[in-house]
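Hello,

I think I submitted the WTA job twice by accident. Can you confirm which output corresponds to this input? Input:
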Amino acid sequence: MPYPYQIQSMEEYQTAWKKSEEDPEGFWGEIAENFLWRKKWDKVLTWNFKEPDIKWFSGAKLNITENCLDRHLETRGNELALIWEPNNPEDHHRLLTYEQLHFKVNQFGNVLRNNGVKKGDRVCIYMGMVPELAIAVLACARVGAIHSVIFGGFSAQSISDRIQDAHAEFVITCDGSFRGAKEIPLKPIIDDALVSCPFVKRVIVLTHTHAPISMIKDRDVRWEKEIHKVENLGNPPCIPEEMDAEDMLFILYTSGSTGKPKGVVHTCGGYMVYTNYTFVNVFQYKPGELHFCTADVGWITGHSYIVYGPLSAGATTLMFEGVPTWPDAGRFWSIVDKYQVNILYTAPTAIRSLMSYGLEPLKDKKLDSLRVLGTVGEPINEEAWHWYDEHVGKKKCPIVDTWWQTETGGIMISNLAGITPSKPSYATLPLPGVHPVLVDEKGQEIVGNDVTGNLCLLGPWPSILRTTYGDHERCRLNYFNTYPGLYFTGDGCHRDEHGNYRITGRVDDVLNVSGHRLGTAEVENAINMHTDVIESAVVGYHHDIKGQGIYAFVIYGGEEDEDDFTRKAISLTVVRVIGVIARPDKIQFVKGLPKTRSGKIMRRILRKIAEGETSNLGDTSTLLDPSVVEDIAKGAIK
Ligand code: WTA
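Support: Only one job matched these inputs. Its output is below.
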């Protein structure tokens, strides 16, 4: 039995969940015995949610890469750790066994050390989906540096903000990356970002697209040349840094309800145990199987279920550089057949987008290697669920609908493939160690079944965020202060008559656009950066493919006409400030915004208008000027 903690039946699930509730220390301590520790812990758990101060496996020493690589060498050194499928199906794919991946991580770990990277240093990684991205992440972990991966869709301004917030003195990037028919420049964006980050000492640039790029003396070096230097030294092993279980492993920036993204901090020990446990149990991974998670490593899903979860379990993980619709909308299905993928984990947005191409792209695709399907990142509508079930899974593959967050590190609520029942559009049951609580606006717990409320979590699980980088108070206020004693998720949730959970979407000012998290305040700030914008308000609205679209109400004070040209100028400003992922779908010019006498924008009304409602806008009597509502409703964009 390769994973003694892999749950085999509904009864075992119930027993595990109960044990995790009654004796969390005993429960997680036993699971943690299955990992490689340099030194075992003195105490499994100490915590309070007041400060918050949460410590798992205090006193334990480890290096997560010894768990992801070294410990597999003897048993599965020649088996595949990572398969890479390039953007263009005609280019060469790459296969790395555990031995080869171990070798490459050691090499690049030495490159990092040669370039002055030390334990605790922050390293910003801005790369495309190439194997070297996973190698860079693991090499950071090997030398004890804290990685901060930034998704390729963010702008220079966003990167610069993140590099400054973490004071990252090292950057790893590529000349560029491929996305379908497009070539994305990455190094030029880094160059722009670094204009305001003069403290950056070293930029290591991987050659991938072979685009000409600038290389700045004494700052920029080529990945390949640095590797040569290590080769010339005879490729010595890269001795893993001994890390404390609570030392930082990485920072990952994510959006909240305020304007500035926050750096969510995860630490080594608890994150390792939890991502491994959830990977093995939710997907019911069997040794030798191939796991394909289509997320980008720039998001938490890629961190946890392309890199750390699968590799710590000795699994084979597949990384894909391209997009699901290029060269055609059968790209995912071709990859599944080409490599005989067993587990496919993707986002509802991708499923809805592929649905819109009909069944033609699925013709001639066997898909008979698939055993488990998964979704993540946003609520899945029943139509998309059934399409996935019928046309991809051929009604033979359990679908796991996994609810979790950047802050939770790993999957929190989900069925276990083939072990606990699924229910379309429901994430279903909490994993062992997870204790959901629904509360009303006042923070009163809502007990019983068939109820709806705000989703909170009671007590810590091993991969809960520990802080937000450089600002612990912000972490406390954001997650632990709204409902004292509880972690507040920001999501609304329904619990059905059998205790299954269905996530209904964010109840705070966070949007979920194509599974990407964005704060309305963040987008408003970006729109307001346009010289002639006086004020703006952003809300989400139902979008058939993206889940949510961005609807912006803008008070414009410029001389130009309020037309598409001006809309484009505003959109481009947002793209500059945040990145392409935040481009508004609709911009409506308005004369005023619905504000209360205290100056607060009544978003409830704007949300209704954005959803196409023009009458029944609710009580507007508390507004400073109720007549603006009528004007806005008249000009609404369909
Ligand atoms: C949403 C992604 C419904 C939710 C792993 C959460 C979901 C936010 C689901 C976190 C799901 C994630 N069903 N909603 N299965 N999974 N969400 O930090 O609103 O990018 O709070 O983490 O995505 O997004 P994040």
